[in-house]
Design a protein that fits this description.
The complex is a heterodimer of chains A (about 625) and B (about 160). Chain A is α+β, with helices and mostly antiparallel strands. Chain A has three domains: about 200 residues, Aldehyde ferredoxin oxidoreductase, N-terminal domain (Aldehyde Ferredoxin Oxidoreductase,  A, domain 1, 4-Layer Sandwich), CATH 3.60.9.10; about 180 residues, Aldehyde Ferredoxin Oxidoreductase Protein, subunit A, domain 2, CATH 1.10.569; about 180 residues, Aldehyde Ferredoxin Oxidoreductase Protein, subunit A, domain 3, CATH 1.10.599.10. In chain A, about 40% of the residues lie in helices and about 15% in strands. A six-stranded mixed sheet of chain A has the order 2-1-6-3-4-5, sandwiched between helices. Chain A has a six-stranded mixed sheet with strand order 8-7-12-9-10-11. A three-stranded antiparallel sheet of chain A has the order 13-14-15. In chain A, strand 4 and strand 5 form a beta hairpin. The two termini of chain A are about 35 Å apart. Chain B has about 160 residues and is of the alpha+beta class. Chain B has two domains: about 100 residues, Alpha-Beta Plaits, CATH 3.30.70.20; about 55 residues, 2-Layer Sandwich (Alpha-Beta Plaits). Chain B is about 30% helix and about 20% strand. Chain B contains five helices and eight strands, in the order βαββαββαββαβα. Chain B starts with a strand and ends with a helix. Classes of the chains: A alpha+beta (about 625), B alpha+beta (about 160). At the A-B interface, helix 4, helix 7 and strand 13 of A face helix 1 of B.
């Protein structure tokens, strides 16, 4: 029987031989892994291993819509993309909003798995259960906006939803994105390169079917109650009015905005003000708010300026292309954002690797000979725009930078690893973890690499009542709602990781659960129960979240990961933060928090491997057995 | 008499109205069965809710050869009578908004949910309102007054 609220099927497209298969999703699977991110992690575990080449035909690219996606559960339209990352050579999940996910479900599928490699450029059209692989020669080379529009034109339906790559994905830039609904990115980890390596330009979906829930009346009651919880949260108006861009100045004033490649923690306030959500609105650049499917927050932006228009920019983009490069020219940053969206690039890594290049030039490690004659300077917006183009098309210096900060610094050598702000291959997102200890621990643990999209501990800042209440619930006291202490960080991170995993799996937006905090795991469990008919409570839901997090950890262990991998970028561990009273993320500090965290999780702190008993208690015996068979002693 | 009004400049394109509509009428989530549609220009982030405006001089009713579409003036709703309908489909192109649809041999169009539209209740962006027809232009009238006062005061200072 199909689980209510789900389409109930996995679609598997083998691009090598053109074979199309379907597999049912059992209710045991949904109860155990909740959906989307959870089930995808298990598929990745089954389909890939140590020898899988991330950009080879043996990698899989898994698109999954949330269990609640397609309903009117508030802010439930998220999609997770799962793959072995060419950036990190590890587990990767990248999530996105937009409108693609619900269409996939209306078309009859919860999950799409792309396998193999097409001989020539192709795109996939899922048309209400009919699946075809279509020629994409005429689309290859086109940017994201044009590709999306062209596909809708040729399929003669403006309501078709498109996920596609731009030139960056085609050129296998290691931090290229898959773009959904034109401006929504599954940005991090090189999902675009994996799609490009399979010669797939796009996945277009037309869905006109239905999603039914187990208990319609209770479901509606619960959905409306949760909608109101989110809309009445004290931080809702800020996210709604200014988007994530609304936090630029606050984070800047806290001294943790990662300026000049993490050498400074604050960008001159007179300059930073041109990069704020408020300024974008008041100067008339903000032309519209955009809501992802079913969203009651609507944080996504749409901006227009003299030479262009695009979705965004988000906080991360403003911080990385603006503050990070010391650029206060609003229109240049908007242009950079537009180019990244059109080429299909992750803005965080793009800006990160450009900052590494500028610092390398400043230190004489890169010279004009390496940069095709371009003089790389801070505060130079033309350099930023030029390098974005060169990266997307792998021209000249762009070919080196397209490999990401880690590989570029390894190739160039000469101590340039010291200002390569990456760990495990991923460029750090724009929070200076030296002043925020939950973030430091979370970033070190994150199986993707040092970023905020695995466990975003905003509550530790103590800036909203709802967040502080959550800290009190986790730790027993609101005094721990401060980012400067290492105390209780393991508890805080563990809770956030589990909640994040459950949120992703259900298709909810983590801004609703882990930024606003009014919408809790108990609420998620309730609405999930009425939707699916599977009995769920807060403890069971959080345990399923723990199961997902543990499985992801085990995947990386299967690939050879050990405790040594849980580090932060060199600069953050070895250079003092320039902010007042600035500290470092010393190894000792990190080790202390990691020890405690591993004990909490019942993982072996010497190796970071979960104990066999731990896996058993999570119903993950088969995972432990397989690791043991491989000679990895738990 | 209350009317359903859409404000495209406020619409964020989340599609919650479509879900609430299909859920109310079909007990399932399916925008293609929704009586209200969000039309979208994604590249320019322009969204507009489209629905039956319950016209006073309704082309759908005028072209209907069997009088299956009749205005219930008490409720303010253009109602469809299944037993009279012959399924000719003339009403569909007649509607200037494209708000009359023919699905599974039935005409579907907005019925204002018996005077309590679900779409209005769920919209998170205040882009849909169900208000007294006389009040629809109230905000605009007030803004004209504001503009006039500002303009005249500026002029007066010269």
């Amino acid at each position: 029987m199909v689980v209510p609220c789900m389409a109930g099927k996995i679609l598997i497209v083998d691009l090598t031989n053109g074979k199309i298969n379907e597999k049912p999703i059992s209710d045991e699977m949904v109860e155990k892994y909740l959906g989307s991110r959870g089930i995808s992690a298990k598929i990745l575990w089954d389909e890939t291993d140590k020898n899988t080449e991330p950009l080879g035909s043996d990698n899989v690219l898994i698109f999954s819509a949330g269990t609640l996606t397609g309903t009117f559960a508030p802010s439930s339209g998220r999609v997770t993309v799962t793959f072995k990352s060419p950036t990190t050579n590890m587990y990767f999940k990248s999530t996105t909003g937009g409108h693609w996910g619900s269409k996939l479900k209306y078309a009859g599928y919860d999950i799409l798995v792309l396998k193999g490699k097409s001989k020539k450029p192709a795109y996939i059209f899922i048309d209400d259960g009919k699946v075809s692989i279509k020629d994409a020669d005429h689309l290859w080379g086109k940017d994201v906006r044009e590709t999306t529009e062209k596909i809708r034109e040729e399929l003669e339906d403006q309501h078709i939803q498109v996920a596609c790559i731009g030139p960056a994905g085609e050129n296998k830039v290691l931090f290229s994105a898959i773009m959904f609904s034109t401006y929504h990115a599954a940005a991090r980890g090189g999902s675009g390169a994996v799609m490009g390596s399979k010669n797939v330009k796009a996945v277009a979906v037309r869905g006109t079917g239905s999603i039914k829930v187990a208990n319609p009346e209770k479901f509606k009651e619960s959905a409306m109650r949760c909608r109101n919880l989110i809309m009445n949260d004290s931080r809702h108006p800020i996210l709604s009015e200014f988007g994530t861009a609304g936090s630029v100045m606050g984070i800047n004033l806290m001294g943790i905005i990662a300026t000049r490649n993490f050498r400074e923690g604050t960008f001159d306030v007179d300059k930073a003000r041109y990069l704020t959500g408020r300024y974008l609105k008041e100067a008339g650049y903000l032309r519209g708010r955009v809501g992802c499917e079913g969203c009651v927050i609507g944080c996504h932006r749409y901006t227009e300026f003299k030479n262009g228009f695009s979705g965004g920019p988000e906080y991360e983009t403003l911080a990385v292309l603006g503050c990070g490069l010391c650029i206060d020219d609003t229109e240049a940053v908007l242009k950079g954002n537009e180019l990244c969206n059109l080429y299909g690039l992750d803005t965080i890594s793009t800006g990160g690797v450009i900052q590494w290049a500028v610092e390398s030039f400043e230190r004489g490690v890169l010279t004009e000979k390496d940069t095709d004659g371009i003089i790389l300077n801070w505060s130079d917006s033309s350099v930023m725009l030029e390098l974005i183009k060169k990266i997307a098309f792998r021209e000249g210096i762009g070919d080196l930078l397209a490999e990401g900060t880690k590989r570029a610094s390894e190739r160039v050598g000469k101590d340039s690893y010291k200002w390569a702000i990456q760990a495990r291959g991923l460029e750090q997102s724009r929070v200076d973890t030296r002043g925020t200890k939950s973030y430091a621990l979370a970033f070190a643990l994150n199986p993707r690499g040092p970023d905020h999209l695995h466990s975003q501990c905003i509550a530790e800042f103590g800036r909203s009542k709802e967040g502080t209440d959550r800290i009190k619930k986790i730790t027993g006291s609101e005094k721990y709602a401060t980012p400067n202490t290492t105390e209780k960080r393991p508890e805080i991170v563990q809770w956030h990781e589990d909640c994040y995993a459950a949120t992703d799996a259900l298709g909810f937006c983590t801004l609703a659960t882990l930024s606003l905090y009014s919408f809790t795991p108990a609420d998620m469990a309730e609405i999930f129960s009425y939707a699916t008919g599977i009995n769920m409570d807060e403890d069971k839901l959080m345990k399923a979240g723990e199961r997902i997090v543990t499985l992801e950890q085990c995947y990386n262990i299967k690939l050879g990961k050990t405790r040594e991998w849980h580090v932060l970028p060199w600069r953050l561990m070895n250079e003092k933060s320039p902010s007042e009273g600035g500290s470092t993320n010393t190894k000792e500090e990190l080790d202390g928090m990691l020890d405690e965290y591993f004990e909490l999780r019942k993982w072996d702190k010497r190796t970071s491997y979960p104990y066999l008993e731990t896996l058993k208690s999570l119903n993950l015996e088969e995972i432990g057995d397989e690791l043991n068979r491989m000679g990895i002693k738990l | 008499m209350s009317v359903l009004v859409g404000y495209p400049e406020k619409c964020i394109g989340c599609g919650l109205c479509e879900r609430a509509c299909s859920f109310k009428h079909e007990k399932e989530f399916n925008p293609s069965l929704s009586r209200i549609k969000v039309e979208r220009n994604e590249s320019r982030a322009f969204f507009a809710p489209v629905f039956c405006t319950q016209c006073g001089y309704a082309p759908c009713a005028k072209v209907c050869p069997t009088d299956a579409l009749v205005k219930n003036s008490k409720k303010g709703v253009m109602e469809w009578y299944k037993d009279k309908c012959i399924g000719c489909g003339l009403c569909i192109p007649a509607c200037p908004f494209g708000a009359v649809m023919f699905v599974n041999e039935e005409v579907i169009k907005c019925d204002l949910c018996d005077g309590d539209p679900e779409c209005v209740k769920i919209c998170p962006a205040d882009a849909l309102r169900f208000i007294d027809a006389r009040d629809v232009g109230k905000d605009k009238r007030a803004s004209i007054l504001r503009k006039n006062i500002e303009a005249l005061r500026e002029k007066g200072g010269e």
